[in-house]
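Revision sheet: structure tokens.
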Amino acid sequence: MPNIIEITDFQAPELDIYARLTEAQLLHYYEPDGGLFIAESPKAVERALDAGCTPFSILAERKHIEGQARAIILRCGEVPVYTADFEILTQLTGFPLTRGMLCAMRRPKLPKAEEICSVAHRIAILENVMNPTNVGAIFRSAAALGMDAVLLTCACSNPLYRRAIRVSMGTVFQIPWTFLSSDQWPNSALQQLKALGFKTAAMALSDNSISIDDPQLIETEKLAIILGTEGDGLAPVTISGCDYTVRIPMSHGVDSLNVAAASAVAFWQLRNRKL
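Predicted:
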């Protein structure tokens, strides 16, 4: 039975997680246990539930309770469902962007890197990608274009930040991912990947780089595609530790693409054609 609660006071502490807490505060909400994240839109919430995430509370426009959000709310049991008309909810900054529904959820425990790599053939690794919009866009491309998992270094933006989830269209819940610790990356992680049978491809401009359409890349059974931070790209130590340095051919004097755009090109070209 849904627990519907009419909003009468925007200063109510129950709404802090939607209106006043920062991403960092949500991340540490239940410290030392996992924190919370906010999924926006019925599609993203549905994908999070399908992935096994546990709902904490819901904020929904009234018309959606018996509309597009009804089935989702019923899946959430007796968690609080805060509601009001759209005109009232617009007092919450950014609510018009949410497609009428927000759900606060508990952060799931992340798997170990070796767990998800052991059953993968194509992996994306993000090194210090700090813009949540880019992280979300990369996840959407990874899910759509054949990546089996995503690994992130500890300086990356968190895939469960609200903007990353929104940009990914909820695909952050559909593809396995985890963080690599600072003492794992790059040397230990690269060695572990090679022990699991992976070749590693650093996406970078270099005098000794090979083209992304090189047959030896396409024919590789297990491949880890490594993308670097906005602006500076991959660290020299990362590039030197990889089996290949790979470039995307450019024209009109353009030297590089945005990391999210480059990821889509790389994932499509280097996908596992055997599956």
